TrEMBL record:
This is NAD(P)-binding domain-containing protein. It holds the Pfam family NAD_binding_10. Residues 14-123 form the NAD(P)-binding domain. It comes from Acaromyces ingoldii. GO terms for molecular function: aldehyde dehydrogenase (NAD+) activity. PANTHER family: NAD(P)-BINDING DOMAIN-CONTAINING PROTEIN-RELATED, PROTEIN YEEZ. The lineage of its organism: Eukaryota, Fungi, Dikarya, Basidiomycota, Ustilaginomycotina. Gene3D superfamilies: NAD(P)-binding Rossmann-like Domain.
Amino acid sequence: MTTQQKTLFLIGPGFIGGTLLQHLKQRRPDLKLTALTRREEQAKELQDLGIEPIKGGLDDASIIKEHASKADIVIHVATADHLESALAVVDGIKSRADKSKKVVYIHTSGNNELAQAAKGLEKASVEDKILSDSQGDEAIEKRLASDAPHRQVDGPLREQLFNDAAEKANNASTTVMMPPLVYGIGAAPWHRISIQAPILARAMMQNGNTIALDRAVAEYAYWDAVSVHDLSEAFVVLLAQLEKHTPGESQPSHYCFPAEPAPFPWAALFDAISSQLQKHAHPAGQASPKVLSDRAAFEDFLGGKETGFAPVFGQIVFERDNCYTRPDRLHALGFKHKAKGVVDSVVNGGELEPLIKE
């Protein structure tokens, strides 16, 4: 008797999703891979890689629902803030006429949802501000603000499917993957780069000078990071665990934190970007750095509140109530990080060279 091949439906074949698809091709050749894309050019690229393109975008709820209802595995990695597409997956899973076949759904959020999750711990050490993904849903959500970034998506997902009772009723195993700053150069053929370090580099080039953190701020300004390739492996490891999970049985939590064991200092990343601008003789790298001591100045440097990302970026760099995460769930499954960190990626990984040389 021939076993039917499992189908994985991926939403968002971008920086993370495109790298994950290539990783899945190597690590999970047993899966039939499909991916939602708007662009004809990318559809052809996916097809050339042996991945079936599904034409559509995030607003095409009926298309997402249809393919989610047929897939064995759904991974949403397009954006953490598009509620309609995330719920279209839920609708697809719930609408299956035959629920005898289990489905896995991994939704990708972001751990800036945990910014301000250490309120009351402002004077505590970094270690005391750490939240583990094995502490359980209640302990994690107790520290989440109702208006935190991405909560407008993760909250409804938790209510509608990402809980033990709904999983049992719908024969589904689910988890919210919460990556922090994701760095590195994505997989071929796209070779996309990350967001945060390039944002900083572009701002420095546009302003004509680099920036550095005031010593008092540098002492507490840390954040979590993970390489895009380590993150892809984290998805593979988590997926294997969810495939074995019995819906209705409790998991360590419905969250997964793939962050590296130790947070990185923002001051070191600022300095690393400055060093690359100097190395490549960009004019911004030749000017004296502007030393920043407050959030408002940093947000102005990034282009002000109208940019959209500046307020969140300012919060995670300058606020003392930021939370840090520990990937205990993944470590228990044997996962290990291989990358050397975001600072090394900037200094030795060539991550910013194409951007600087534009």
